[in-house]
Amino acid sequence: MTIAELIAKKDEALQEAAAAQTPEEVEQVRIKYLGRNGLLPAIVKGFKDVPKEDRPAFGKITNQWRQELEAALAGKKADGDTAATGPAFDPSLPGRWFVPGSKNPISRVMEETAAIFSRLGFSVADGPDIETKFNNFTALNTPAHHPSMDPTDTLWLTDELLLRTQTSPVQIRTMTANKPPVRIITPGRTYRRDTTDATHSANFHQIEGLYVDVKPVSLADLKSTLTYYAQEMMGPRCKAIRFRPHFFPFTEPSVEVDFQCHVCGGKGCRVCKNSGWIEVAGAGLVDPRVYRFVGYDPDQVWGFAFGMGVERIAMIKYGIPDIRWLYENDVRFLDQVK
Question: What is the number of domains present in the chain?
Answer without folding.
Answer: 2
